[in-house]
């Protein structure tokens, strides 16, 4: 099979990204234009602004990805684009541009599920390191701003299939990081800030009650594990809205509101706050709370994921998505995985958060299978992964 150069385009949330990947195994170029500065004043992603920013960025970002790959439009073999899940208006910008390119260049168009992209970010980088063999069964935890999902991933020939065996019942883990950071006046996005600040607090100072998960059927257990009545498979669900409420109560009980408001105002005046800026505006109580929150989330994620890995007897664990960039999460998974003799693979930190290289990589098996998208396919905001 000759080399295939796939141009990937990703615009599902607040990053406009384009990348060129060779045959799902070599990153040739990877360009990501972040919209953080646009959404920061609002403390979260504003969908209308996101679509507008994607419209502005898409053409220069794709041009730059091709220029860095030293490729011309005509020398790519296919165009891959995120179909969903994500913000409908944002997805449409990437999809419309990908369709226009595919039509004008007469190249195949490949529609990719964003979550499958996150899983293939791991595969891309492992192949790039020369590791072409993955031991199955593979369990993949996709942990991002919108998802905390567990999939059993299988490969038949070139194509991949995914079985969801768990997901969050309410907030995703990344969403909890973002909401807690907002609540504490630490700005947006919350994950990277909490990651850095947690090093400065006592992670054992505040105790949070474990997430209560109401099981959907009577055979369910009390540990987040239940049995799906339809297919009899065990399920491993997560819940992160309770911890956000617990933090809100803690803030009220410790009269932290005034300090939070002055921190919010002080940080809003700094265009790109550094860790020293955050530290200058955080007292010990706040740093301890932040570190304890991060520890609680990580313990829950790692505990439930490793329980699922044990019960499903998997050979390999992938941990991917924006929250997989978290330093303590990576260390904890590595340590606990090693303890159980389970190999754990992550993407590098730049490929953990949203990017288009993962979309181009996930498109390669579809390219081989000639699984091309019709020109009239549309965005699917709630697209499921199967
Ligand atoms: O995968 P991603 O870039 O976009 C989505 O598909 O949602 O994930 C974004 C999420 C955000 O919630 C962000 O706060 C979180 O990932 N995140 C982190 C870190 N970096 C990004 N969470 C914890 N620690 C980090 N270092
Ligand atoms: Zn993502």
Shape: globular
Q: H/E series, N to C? A: EEEHHEHEHEEEHHEEHHHHEHEHH
The unreliable regions are none
Distance between the termini: 27 Å
In DSSP terms, counting alpha (H) and pi (I) runs of 4 or more, how many helices? 13
Kindly state the percentage of residues in helix: 40-55%
- Proportion of residues in extended strands: 15-25%
The gyration radius over C-alpha positions equals 21 Å
Tell me the total number of β-strands: 12
Mean pLDDT rating: 95
**Sheet/helix structural class:** alpha/beta
Small-molecule components bound: 5'-O-[(R)-(carboxyoxy)(hydroxy)phosphoryl]adenosine, zinc ion
The biggest beta sheet is recorded as: 5 strands, mixed
**Strand order across the largest sheet:** 3-2-1-4-5
Helix-strand layout with pairing:
Elements lengths: L4 E6 L4 E8 L3 E9 L1 H4 L7 H22 L9 E7 L3 H18 L3 E5 H15 L9 E6 L4 E9 L2 E9 L5 H11 L6 H8 L27 E3 L6 E3 L4 H13 L3 H12 L6 H6 L3 H28 L4 E5 L6 H13 L4 E2 L3 H4 L4 H12 L18
Parallel strand pairs: 1-4, 4-5, 6-11, 11-12
Antiparallel strand pairs: 1-2, 2-3, 6-7, 7-8, 9-10
Bound molecules: 5'-O-[(R)-(carboxyoxy)(hydroxy)phosphoryl]adenosine and zinc ion.
The site of 5'-O-[(R)-(carboxyoxy)(hydroxy)phosphoryl]adenosine has 20 residues, from α5 and α6.
List keywords for this structure.
12 strands, five-stranded mixed beta sheet, 19% strand, binds zinc ion, globular, binds 5'-O-[(R)-(carboxyoxy)(hydroxy)phosphoryl]adenosine, alpha/beta, 386 residues
């Amino acid at each position: 099979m000759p080399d295939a150069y796939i141009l990937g385009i990703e615009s599902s949330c607040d990053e406009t990204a384009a990348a060129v990947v060779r045959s799902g195994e070599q990153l040739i170029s990877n360009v990501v234009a972040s919209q953080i500065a646009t959404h920061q004043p609002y403390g979260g992603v504003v969908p209308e602004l996101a679509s507008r920013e994607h419209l502005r960025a898409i053409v220069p970002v794709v041009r730059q990805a091709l220029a860095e790959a030293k490729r011309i439009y005509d020398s790519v073999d296919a165009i891959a684009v995120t179909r969903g899940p994500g913000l409908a208006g944002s997805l449409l910008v990437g999809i419309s541009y990908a369709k226009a390119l595919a039509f004008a260049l007469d190249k195949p168009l490949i529609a990719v599920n964003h979550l499958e992209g996150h899983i293939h970010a791991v595969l891309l980088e492992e192949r790039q390191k020369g590791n072409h063999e993955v031991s199955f069964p593979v369990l993949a935890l996709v942990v991002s701003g919108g998802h905390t999902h567990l999939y059993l991933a299988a490969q038949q020939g070139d194509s991949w299939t995914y079985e969801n065996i768990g997901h969050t019942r309410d907030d995703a883990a990344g969403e909890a990081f973002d909401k807690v950071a907002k609540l504490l006046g630490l700005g947006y996005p919350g994950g990277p800030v909490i990651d850095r600040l947690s090093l400065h607090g006592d992670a054992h100072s505040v105790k949070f009650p474990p997430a209560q998960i109401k099981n959907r059927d009577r055979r369910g257990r009390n540990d987040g594990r239940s049995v799906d009545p339809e297919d009899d498979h065990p399920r491993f669900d997560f819940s992160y809205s309770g911890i956000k409420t617990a933090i809100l109560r803690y803030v009220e009980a410790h009269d932290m509101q005034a300090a939070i408001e002055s921190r919010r105002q002080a940080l809003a005046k700094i265009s790109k706050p550094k860790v020293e800026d955050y530290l200058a505006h955080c007292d010990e109580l706040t740093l301890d709370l932040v570190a304890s929150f991060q520890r609680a989330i990580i313990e829950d994620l790692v505990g439930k994921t490793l329980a699922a890995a044990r019960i499903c007897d998997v050979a390999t664990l992938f941990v991917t998505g924006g929250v997989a960039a978290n330093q303590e999460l990576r260390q904890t998974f590595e340590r606990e995985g090693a303890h159980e003799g389970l190999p754990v693979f992550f993407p590098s930190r730049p490929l953990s958060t949203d990017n288009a290289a993962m979309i181009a990589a996930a498109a390669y098996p579809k390219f081989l299978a000639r699984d091309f998208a019709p020109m009239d396919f549309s965005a699917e905001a709630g697209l499921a992964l199967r």
